[in-house]
Each structure stands twice: as structure tokens, then as C-alpha cells.
Amino acid sequence: EAGVTQFPSHSVIEKGQTVTLRCDPISGHDNLYWYRRVMGKEIKFLLHFVKESKQDESGMPNNRFLAERTGGTYSTLKVQPAELEDSGVYFCASSQSLAGGGQYFGPGTRLTVT
Amino acid sequence: QKEVEQNSGPLSVPEGAIASLNCTYSDRGSQSFFWYRQYSGKSPELIMSIYSNGDKEDGRFTAQLNKASQYVSLLIRDSQPSDSATYLCAVPHRGGTYKYIFGTGTRLKVLA
Lengths: 114, 112
Hints:
The structure holds two protein chains of two kinds. Chain A is mostly beta strands.
């Protein structure tokens, strides 16, 4: 069974540019989460999809971040325009059920905004 | 007070020893707890889950939960240099989405 995959693994962009991160969850996992870790801090929740519906986007920093999950399969997270403070590692995770079993994480996308 | 707290370490133990990693949490009603291992530059890997008070063993790993004291710990027996990694404690937020609240992680170094 393939794990969670993310693309790209690294992205270096200039302030003001746009970047789109992609996540492919484990097949059959309806729950998809985005998290972010900035330097020296803990991993923090951004948002949660169940299939194609956003269930909780309380962790999204501001309206420069837009997440989609069309068709309930893969998800994209767009940052537009990027700011320096957006630098960090963006993780995607998926789970089959909410309460049990745990979430399975992808390798992350390291975003550097210069 | 942070919702999930861990000592950032590094925790250094000699090869073959028991490594003890601790995590405290603030929400007394939390029901499930997860330990992840993260090697540098890699994804967090789920290694243990625990839901009930007491111990849960899986190979060299033992998770311990004490809900009254609001702590969960991870013991690694016969520590190996390959166990050197950051260990993350994750507690689902109670509110419907089960988004995880993470600690900062404890960096473990197993010395050969």
C-alpha cells in the first residue's frame, strides 16, 4: 500500500510569488489534514478535509492560504502571495477514521521564501 | 501552559539502555494518544497509540498512560543507535475533527 505522498519535496520562492503544494493521501482515506512546522516550533494544524469538504480550517494563518480537495482525492495548498514567515515544512496526513488508528504523514514539503 | 509538553532534549542514553520519553497534556478529557518517530528530514512515523490507562507493549516499545496525572510516556528498551530520532507526542483535539496537538518533540541520541 502506497503511503502519503507530497510534491514538491522542496520549494524555494521569492516573497510575493505563488506556490502550490500537493498531497496524495493513502487510497481510501477520507480524512486529509494539512500541518506546518516552522523552525524551532511544534507541528501545528492548518486544516482538515473529509472527502472534498473542509471540516475545520481554523489553523489557516490568513487568506493567503487556499486549500482544495477536488473529487475527494488529492489536495492542494496554495500560498499566494508568499511571505517570509510562510517558510517551514508543510506536512499532509491522512486517516481512514477520525477517532482511531492514527494519522499517517507524508514526507513534507520544505518551503523557503526568500 | 502549552496543551502538549515535552522536554526537547537531547536525551542521551547508551546503547542497550532504556530510553524514557515523557509527555504531559492539559485536556483532562483526552482519550487517545499517539507517539511518532521522526528522523531528520523525514516524515513523522506512527509507532504507538494508547487509549487506556496502563501499559501497552509492542516489541521494544512500551507506551504508558496515566490519565489522572495527565501524562503519557514512551519507553524504548535495548536502545539502538538507529533509535536516534525525534519522538513526537500527539494528542487529538476534542472537537470533532481530531486534529492533532503536538508537543515540540524530544530528540533522542543513542550512543554506541
